[in-house]
Amino acid sequence: MSLSSIPSVDQIKRLPKAVLHDHLDGGLRPETIIEIANEIGYLELPTQDPAELADWFQESCDSGSLVRYLETFEHTIAVMQREQDIVRVARECAVDLARDGVVYAEVRGAPELFTRAGLTLNQVIEATTEGFKQGMEQASAEGFHIRVEQLLCALRQNDHAQLIAEKVVEFREKGVVGFDIAGPEDGFPPTRQQEAFDYLRQENAHFTIHAGEAFGLPSIWQAIQMCGAERLGHGVRIIEDIDLSGEKPVLGKLASYVRDRRIPLELCPTSNLQTGAASSIETHPIGALAKLRFRVTINTDNRLMSRTSMTHEMSEVVRAFDWTLLDLQRVTINALKSAFIPFEERLAIIETIVKPGFLKIASE
Q1: Fold topology of 9-362
Q2: Tell me: the pLDDT tens digits for 155-173?
């Protein structure tokens, strides 16, 4: 076997992976939701059976509507209002990712969502960091290596972005590596949070922006040119600025800029199908964008809602586009090149874990 070979699902499972776009409140174990709900007296769950609850989340999110997709988070947010529950969810997140072969992860969450029962933003952030720390230690004890960092999200429909941006700077080098805005994209342009983005740039802080998922090219343009986004959360609709009708693809000015500047696309194939950003995995823009050498990365978005994992996401892309080990290595290295940790730390993960890991699979 070589790096030009098409890998099996088992081989993909064992590959070292990196994920940049994974939501903490979108990746809970169904069993955990039920257990915490029973402890706190939350009676709104549609079922007490873990398998049925997993089915419910996936089916609710298969509607093709981003708005309905986001509504499912009411249940996960409800069981993340105590410090010990946030620690537990973060710990299990790190362990679950590690068991799937992920060696580096940036997991995002909106701290303001977890303050309904009286927690402060600082308590939420610190509990999340503690959970990731415990999860990394547990993963190590199980024989896995993973590094998990935190991104703080502001909700684009609210007015707390400046405060959350200040928390990113306050907790920099204390478990937090960057900022994001999430929530309904249509009707809430990123420029509503312009003050926060200007502040982050002045503080030399990293940030990504959800753009180009539920809304098209204007959202991407604003995120990059007005707000200065380093990465695009999703960004899948950049394909709308590429003419694929002729023998040779023709890139529009925005698509050319994104590719030329090597702006990373945090693509989430399964999630994009659920929210209607793509109609099928076979027609997902990731195939064309990778061929055109955009800086493509593969991500999970919400593992519970999409019933997915990095292994599943990679396997689906391999199946749809005949991607090889080399293709998967490229998107993994893309992700690490685009991570919000220092350059030398990114390089160390690539050189000591990712490349040797792929070569080991290729040599089997």
Answers
A1: TIM Barrel (3.20.20)
A2: 988 989 999 999 999 999 9
